[in-house]
């Protein structure tokens, strides 16, 4: 099945501690049904000092489940579901993602 949320998409968090916040998808993990979103679901980790990095407590993003994310509508920025539609005829057909809320194409 085609991916409804992809790297680089602007998404809105639907549930959890960061509900209502928006961010850009940095990485998608389809095997786990999870995604990494910049600035969302931040956790603190203790890190030992090494030659490349200094030690201490660092904050980093943790993966969030795809069911807790919704794509931001390209027209008004509100959460929307994603559908698919084919554009073109014959061999030139192209499958594109479409926002269910406004009907706008997400990627052309």
Task: Indicate the structural class.
Answer: mainly beta
Helix count equals 0
Strand order of the largest sheet: 6-3-2-1-7-8
Helix content: under 10%
Q: What is the molecular shape?
A: elongated
CATH topology of the domain at 10-76: SH3 type barrels
What's the count of strands? 10
List the keywords:
single chain; 108 residues; mainly beta; SH3 type barrels; six-stranded antiparallel sheet; two-stranded antiparallel ribbon; 10 strands; 0% helix
Characterize the structure shown.
This protein has a domain at 10-76: SH3 type barrels (Roll). It has 108 residues and is mainly beta. It contains no helices and ten strands. A hairpin with an 8-residue loop joins β4 and β5 (56-61).
Offer a concise description of the structure.
By secondary structure, the protein is mostly beta strands. It has no helices and ten strands.
What's the layout of helices and strands?
Elements: E1 10-13, E2 22-29, E3 34-37, E4 42-47, E5 56-61, E6 64-65, E7 69-72, E8 79-80, E9 82-87, E10 94-99
Antiparallel strand pairs: 1-2, 1-7, 2-3, 3-6, 4-5, 7-8, 9-10
């Amino acid at each position: 099945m085609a991916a409804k949320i992809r790297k680089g998409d602007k998404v809105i968090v639907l549930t959890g501690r960061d509900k209502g916040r928006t961010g850009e998808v940095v990485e998608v993990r389809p095997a786990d049904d999870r995604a990494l979103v910049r600035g969302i679901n931040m956790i603190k980790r203790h890190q030992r000092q090494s030659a490349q990095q200094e030690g201490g407590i660092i904050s980093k993003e943790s993966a969030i489940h795809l069911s807790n994310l919704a794509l931001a509508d390209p027209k008004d920025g509100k959460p929307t579901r994603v559908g698919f539609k084919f554009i073109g005829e014959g061999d030139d057909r192209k499958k594109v993602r479409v926002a269910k809320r406004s009907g706008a194409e997400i990627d052309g």
